Amino acid sequence: MAEPYKIVIGLEVHVQLLTKTKLFCGCPNKFGLPPNSAVCPVCLGMPGSLPVMNRKAFELSLKAALALNCSIASHPGEKPGYTKWDRKNYYYPDLPKNYQISQYELPFSHDGFLEINVHPDPKKGYTPKKVGIIRAHLEEDAGKNIHDESGRGGDTRVDLNRTGTPLLEIVSHPDMNSPEEAIAYLEEIRLLLRELAVSDCEMQEGSLRCDANVNVHIPKPDEPKGYAATPLVEIKNLNSFRAVGRAITYEAKRQYEQFQKDPVNYRIGKLLKTTAGWDDAKGRTEVQRHKEEAADYRYFPEPDLVPVIVSKEQLDAVKATMGELPQAQRQRLQSQYGLSLYDAEVLSSKGRKMVAYFEEVAKELAGDGKTAANRLSDLVFPALTERHEEIEEFPIRPAAFATFLKATGSLPKMDRLSVFAVVLEKGLDVEAAKKEVGIKEFDESALRAAAIAAIAANPKAVADFKGGKDSAKMAIVGHVMKNNKGAPNDVVRKLVDEELGK
Ligand code: ZN
Ligand code: MN
Question: Which ligand places an atom closest to the C-alpha of 86?
């Protein structure tokens, strides 16, 4: 690492669950409705209203927690395990009840991990790393304050549609040590939760939100731990992966500089944890306030909801619906098809439907996954980007794609690209597309005859080659190519090799 300090990052991620209704009432859980149109006495916190837990939200959370390798609702000495709800008390205009129903001392899941693949340089491959998960718990979301941004000091309004929508909060250990690792962790969470249909994880719409806890360790051989640690800063509500990376980089450097100015007092333990906002336009963090301690929230058990017991049967039922998870899938793609971790990573990051497409193509190619993966990245991925399509909408289905690959296997790459573009744009079959592009067909026996003729016509090159000058062969290949413009170079080389070897 180039910096004279080690960055230490823990992430708190909130994801909105894909339920039809809110966590404790029947109001729709839907983004983009007119302000304050999806509310009822329960989510408005009216006196006398009572919450009822949303079973679907609980099931989705169980699925996510299992995928994050968490232990479910079991604490030492408590069997069967159960989980309960707590009130987290605070006053805020977008929180009409003045408390949030959350989970404090008995979260429904804890102590898991997520394996991520960090890739500072894709050419060098990926480095797997385990990031510990402290806990994943369920809670309700607050509403939204909408501030006047005209700069003319207008009013602030509150939209309570979001109040009471289900959130899964996932808290990691401070196991990440670079912005790249933090982003890789978020990408993996997003992939996992999208694949499991737990959340759509749209950062733009706020269905995935991230707070980053950051400090730095500065090596000091004479200190008891061998380093000095700066106070924690929690950067709130980062709303893009890019912002996460920039904010962490900025904040770590800022803390290091602060420490240089005041190495005695600017230390963890001497100063309280603070929260900061990230100003994306100015490219800097802005410290907001000292963080409340848990005691400030006056957590106490929610008296209106019963504890939830999670049975083994319930867990097994949820497990049965999970399917293959990305990390296991990457391992299988490597062992079954001989793909590199890089290729497996690229495929699995595009989701299960892409992997299914790939596997069908590979099957049609007699299990040649390497060719299938390479051609998907040469041809299909760029086409999907250009056409703004998902793989399930792509007009060339796996069997047709495999047929295309077989018919164009010997073409130079540029020709294959041209033929593919015509197949895609005009819906022609591959032979018609080849004609349209003007690809001449070269049958192997004609090319072999040309190779034999070229060898006969270049006795000096043949003598040089046999005398140990490998490059002399290229003169013969060039002779064949000159008389057969557009012939596949790799085939010509192979034929010349074979004929020279005789
Ligand atoms: Zn409601
Ligand atoms: Mn939370």
Answer: 2
* Closest ligand, as measured to the CA of 23: 1
Cα(107) to centroid of ligand 1, in Å? 24
For 244-277, the pLDDT digits (tens) are: 999 999 999 999 999 999 999 999 999 888 999 9
Distance 493 CA to ligand 2 centre (A): 63
Residue 70 Cα to chain centre, angstroms: 19
Domain boundaries, the chain: 15-195+299-320, 202-291, 324-437, 444-500
How big is the chain, counted in residues? 502
Residue 213 CA to its chain's centroid (Å): 20
Residue 280 CA to ligand 2 center (angstroms) comes to 23
* CA 492 to centroid of ligand 1, rounded, Å: 72
Q: What is the pLDDT of residues 269-298, one digit of tens each?
A: 998 889 999 999 999 999 887 766 767 888
d(Cα 241, Cα 20) in Å, to the nearest integer? 27
* DSSP secondary structure letter of residue 320: H
Ligand nearest to the CA of 143: 1
Query: Tens of pLDDT along 189-215?
Result: 999 999 999 999 999 888 999 999 999
